[in-house]
Amino acid sequence: LLGFKVKAVPQAQIYHFAGGTVTGGRGRKKVFISNIRRRYLGEKNQMRNILKNYSFHSLLTILPIYLALNILEMSYFLFTGKLDVLWQAYIKAHVWNMRNLNNTLRERRRIQSMRRISDYALQKNMLKHSAKLDTFMRIGAPQFK
Asked: So what's the pLDDT on residue 24?
């Protein structure tokens, strides 16, 4: 958003403290494995980032799509009886964002006042679809440990 150039550095190494991959190990069927805390943090942060970083015009398009996909995900966990995932990940993330909306809007004003590039310029290099939906279609629903 600030207009900095991003370059790949092939020699760079990234160390993950937690998280890692969503697929299973070699030779096994690929499985989407997660935990409720990781899902909660992902949902909470994704919603906050959407609200903070996109222009108002983009929010009119992106937010309804995001919320529709989120409702589908929550419905899946409701109908499969995974109420702990529904409550501890999704509902808690939505509640957190409602409780912290004033702070998010303050951050939004700060970020939007500094932005140097349009959402279009930013999105040129982004996925044009939902990575979560893609993973679900390729691997299936997440299993929680």
From this structure: 41
Show the tokens assigned to 127.
């996925």
Quick check: 122 and 111 in contact, CB under 8 A? Answer: no
Nearest CA among 84, 104, 97, 103 for reference residue 145: 84
Q: What is the pLDDT of residues 9-66, one digit of tens each?
A: 999 988 876 655 444 433 346 677 778 998 899 999 999 999 999 999 999 999 999 9
| pTM of the model as a whole | 0.80
Alpha helix locations (H) across the chain? 36-53, 56-79, 83-85, 92-99, 101-114, 119-123, 131-139
Q: How confident is the model at residue 101 (pLDDT cuts 50, 70, 90)?
A: very high
Q: How many CA atoms lie within 13 A of 28 on its CB side?
A: 7
